[in-house]
Predict the 3D structure of the following.
Amino acid sequence: MFDKLDAIINRFEELEARLSAPDLYDDPAFAAKLLRERGDLEPIAMAYQAYRCAIDLRRQAEEMLADPELRELAQEELAQAKQDIPRLEEELKILLLPKDSNDNKNILVEIRGGAGGEESALFAHSLYRMYTMYAEKRGWQMEQISISETELGGCKEVVFQISGGGAYSRLKFESGVHRVQRVPETESQGRVHTSTVTVAVLPEADEVDFEINPTDLKIDTFRSSGAGGQHINKTESAIRITHLPTGTVVECQDERSQHKNKDKAMRVLRTRLYEAELQKQNAAIAADRKSQVGTGDRAERIRTYNFPENRVSDHRIKLTLYKLNQFMDGDLDEVLDALIAADMAEKLAQV
């Protein structure tokens, strides 16, 4: 570990020197790349420097113990160093854990109604609202890609993008089956019904991440339509793109412009294909590593929302909170922080 830390310090100091050279900024893209690298290394470098200071302080305090006049001061400094060293060691272990290269990416979120018919579609819309409110609280930007609405105000499917620093790192554990238990508005006898909704959180793929051969695409245009005849467009502005090798189909009819719909559909297609490729690459690792926060498989039930009891329960980390109303208003951090901490603890246990 310490050889790796020494190498990081050397690289950090090298970056500091290079970034102070005025001619570096003649190439803004290269300068930005070095700044990002420096930003990634800075927390580790600062923690390691603090650790080395604590080690030096302990050594000096042990030497001072032999001097009667300095013994009391030495004992205080030695106690402080003995407290700081293990804390800083733990911090360094966490900082050196392998980073998810997608953590800082924007995300595409796909929410689909599952079992439960109209009640499932209504809850899918509630989850859409919940994530939208959370994004607003974080200062992230949200853009709707496509939505298939129902007559009663639910949605069979909604796809949207969230843009902002750390979006994937905060929301990546939301992929899976979300179960709701509540009395539907259409239920005359007050019986609690159980429905499900699936959520998929995908790191948005850039063109450099996944290249698509244009000859592999079939692009169709059609007229937009909506629930109850809403949003009907008399021109064929809606886009359907089929990726022939995989059979992946993406539709977008949210915009009036065919060009904008095509651009959005391509972003969704690229992200879905990128996600499929990542799943292939991670299959062997996932088979060996069963995380406390689950596999992220969309078939896995991850959370229950019980409205009669005002309860939300995350089954992966066995966490239950009795403040479902606040949770549905976008107050997600307590659960998300616990999921991230559980994942980190599991990774640390494997180091």
Notes: Residues 28-64 form the longest helix (37 residues). Residues 227-233, 284-293 have pLDDT under 50 and may be disordered. DSSP finds eight helices and eleven strands in the chain.
